[in-house]
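The protein record now logged underneath.
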Amino acid sequence: MDKKYVYPYSLLEAKRNGELTQYRESFKENVRCANAIKEAINQNFDGMHLNHDVAKPVIAEFGYDRVNFVLANTLQQFEHDGRFSRDNKEWAKGFFIPKSKANNRNYEFMVTSHPAVLDGFANLARKEYDSLNLWNPTHCNDKTHLDYTGKVMVLNPKCLKDEYKNPKDQLVLCEHGFGCSPTASGRKVFGRFLSDGEKCQYDRSDFIGELREEFMPDWAREKVQAMTEPLQSSPAMGGIEMK
């Protein structure tokens, strides 16, 4: 079952962009997810121990991205609470959770379970996500001034549905589009997934960087070679090279 889109912008941005429906649907799902986490903890904490599989059904229902978003929002709200680990607080800081200055309602999708037990849930949810072994910025060259053309770029996993959240499906051979250039006003990048050669298009900002050479798997090198060979050799007819 497809998970609902996690709307990443504020209410003000939603109004400005004509996306109020998307914002409201995502907000309601955030609230529902927070309540589901609280209920899962209630059902799986015996007063001393939290079931190690407690996060799995919540992730299955709401997806990795929303569970992470709701947990990060909660930890950001409780950043001064010493019952949450420093590691989880630092992790939460890596998420942009938009707030409305006039009417900040992010408290409505805070998980209100006991902080010490919720900290344990966050550990388990993060462990589930980490088990995907996804590429992250530490595996990438900086993209700021990079021309993406001909480069193997790493997609932000938030752009992929949960069933495609794996290292193979993060890799895209970028081929053309104004978004390949770091100075062009256009943002679209066109390319192909290395995993199966399927054509795709994304925004320049959807990539976290270029995969560093030392991390490039052998299968990916072979795919790049196979995809670029037709471009490197011009066809010939009757001994005349076609331009």
About this structure: The first helix runs from residue 11 to 17. Residues 11-130 form one domain. Residues 236-243 have pLDDT under 50 and may be disordered. The first strand starts at residue 140 and ends at 141.
